[in-house]
Amino acid sequence: MSVSEGSGSLRIGCVQYLNGRPLIHGWPGPVVFDHPAALCRKLAAGELDVALVSSFEFLRNPVYSIVDGVAVGADGPVFSVFVAHRGAFGELQEIALDPASRTSVNLLHCLLAERGLQPRLIEKEAEVTRTRGRLLIGDQAIRFRERYGSEYEYFDLGGEWKGATGLPFVFALWLIRPEVANAAAIAERLRECRARNLAALEEVIAAQTEYKPEFCDRYFRKRLRFRFGDAEKKGLLRFRALCEKHGLLPPNATPWRVI
Hints:
Number of strands: 11
């Protein structure tokens, strides 16, 4: 399949969450917005040419090209990926998972295993109790915190990863299918979109109607990290190593194609 550089012919998908807006705002063509797991399926099936999807999708199936320099990540507490709980986190017997993001689910697996914790992980929506926590991600997580605030405690996966490894965590990457022509030119346009939006972040913030500008400003500037540089690559390598260590991925030394 050959895909031209024109925006109209490129089948591009992006996470529907607020955290992806600084990477896609103003893109001059149609964009498929969906939750991470659905985008992973569409990209794997060839229904999309390029998509901003969970980093675990690449680790699971490293046939794609990674767009260099661009990611959705965090270098500390991320605010929007957490386990809501009551009481001591280490005493949880069960955690209800959000199946929308395999990256966050597998990151939680790794953090629990490294701490020697073994609560049951259930893939269904369930109320938070003294013995059950709940994993939330993205906009659902933001709305949960807005509604409940300090009523719960929050095990922030970005903060816990940083504390455990000293590295940033990469939640999502732009991935391009291997048969797509002009991949390097597409990657450059995505980098240009990121650079343009971060240079005019006030415009991106003003376009968000579901959240207050003050929150968006703090979230984009203080919580999220939109680059994929050396530190982020080290963080992703560490994540792969831990997934292999804990049986979430088979050993795989396939070289990454970063363009």
